[in-house]
Amino acid sequence: MSAFDEALATIRLEGEAKDKKIAMLEKENRELKEAIEAIKGIPKFYTVADIAKMLSCSKTTIYRAIDSGIIRAGYLSGIESSQNSRKLIPESEIAKLIRFKN
Fold it and tell me: Which helix H or strand E contains 32, and what residues bound it?
């Protein structure tokens, strides 16, 4: 085999390796896109402190809204009786805290 043939064979092998690498990266990219789409479907929840900070109000104001039924809040399963458990508020409830005047 001549030096030219050896160089050509090496180039072909390198090309095949690059093609395999590209195929692997494309597969990983598809899997990551699928994972991102799955995550987008998961509803977001916020703590009382998160919403108070978002709306520039006190945590007490948010607790009052929960206690009066203006917004819904839940707990992590199994710890609802705990005094220190965090209330979780679905993102969809935040708009209920905002009132517009005509």
Answer: helix 3-40
| Residue listed under structure tokens 């809204």 | 65
Buried b (16+ CB within 10 A) or exposed e, 19-32: eeeeeeeeeeeeee
Strands 87-90 and 45-47: antiparallel
* Of 51, 43, 41, nearest in space to 87 by CA: 51
- Residues forming beta bridges with residue 46, ordered by sequence position: 89
Phi and psi at residue 52, to the nearest 5°: -60, -40
Question: Is there a contact between 45 and 60 (Cβ–Cβ < 8 Å)?
Answer: no
Whether the predicted model's global pTM rises above the 0.70 cut: no
Is there a contact between 63 and 71 (Cβ–Cβ < 8 Å)? no
Mean pLDDT by 10-residue block, N- to C-terminus, for the chain (102 residues)?
79 85 92 87 88 94 94 77 72 88 68
End-to-end CA distance of the chain: 88
